[in-house]
Amino acid sequence: MQELELGAEMVEEAGWDLPTRERGLWSDAFRALRRNRLALAALVILLILAALAVSTDFTHLVSRYSPYDQVYTHVHEGPSWAHFFGTDNLGRDNWSRVLTGIEISLQIGIGTQIIVLIVGLLVGVTAALGGRTSDNILMRITDITYAFPDLLFIILLRSVLAGRNWPVLGEPRLQVMLAIAMVNWVTIARLVRGQMLSLSERDYVMAARTLGASNWRVATRHMLPNTLGPVIVAFAFGIPIAIFAEAALGFLGLGLPPPTASLGRLVSDGYVYIQVNPWIVAFPAGAIALLMLCFTFLGDGLRDALDPRQR
């Protein structure tokens, strides 16, 4: 006891802090993410871009011009103080149009991944806990979906949904989200199924079942929380995939209808004038690349932070 008291006195004199409680997975992951400067910088850039894009809907301080106003006396102007990114072939302000495209890309990217997460969790949990028959049926559906070329399947689904006057599915942005989500849910479904099949053999899960816990309680209280790490990483990596898919649809003319200023449509519309005004393509293409890089770096940071082997 005297040795312990002496050691405590030495620690107190040295100014060291004694641990008061054990650190959990999420607190450790947050500390690891803060140490990853690249992921932190990507997160800051994404927050700034999101703030700039959203602010165009509420104030004219960031964007002084409407993205759809046509001024034919200011056609194909280069970057200037009046127009930060110049103007396009119809005299529209490229700065406001790129910000609007960033807002659309963020909405579709995150909205698509929310749909992917819901479908993937439902399929993965049902396949893992529903028995051999449901597992075989759902996994064969997953394999068939995975076998289709992604972009071709997205174009097919978008063509089927386009022009429908359904009460809910008539919104073009929701149609694009659904078309992309119906292709990309397979990754999270396979991931959740594999994680839950692995966790089903753990001692604490078997103990919960022995005590009479239902499958729903075991899945929601003991298994799903332990799959959140890989699912969050897959969610982050899926956002740039959805952003690129939406940009590809816009470039092909199958995305949001004109005059919506999506980034893919901006690149497509400006491609004809690239030799006259290269800025009309450079800025929206750069915005797509910046969004994808930031989400990729953030996903890398989350993967390292949530991986116990990296500590």
In short:
With 311 residues, the protein is mostly helical. 68% of the residues lie in helices and 0% in strands.
Ordered list of secondary-structure elements with their pairings:
Layout: H1 2-14, H2 25-35, H3 37-55, H4 94-129, H5 132-147, H6 150-161, H7 172-199, H8 203-210, H9 215-223, H10 228-252, H11 263-271, H12 279-305
Helix pairs in contact: 2-12, 3-4, 3-12, 4-5, 4-7, 4-10, 4-12, 5-7, 6-7, 7-10, 8-9, 10-11, 10-12, 11-12
Mean pLDDT: 82
User: Strand count, sense and closure of the main sheet?
Assistant: none
Count of DSSP E strands? 0
Question: Can you tell me the CATH superfamily?
Answer: MetI-like
Number of domains: 1
Could you tell me the CATH topology label. MetI-like fold
Unreliable residue runs: 1-22
* CATH architecture assignment name: Orthogonal Bundle
Q: What is the rounded Rg?
A: 25 Å
Walkthrough of the structure:
The chain is an all-alpha fold and 311 residues long. It has one domain (24-68, 77-310): MetI-like fold, CATH 1.10.3720.10. The chain is 68% helix and 0% strand. It has twelve helices and no strands. It has helices spanning 2-14, 25-35, 37-55, 94-129, 132-147, 150-161, 172-199, 203-210, 215-223, 228-252, 263-271, 279-305. Mean pLDDT is 82; it is low at 1-22.
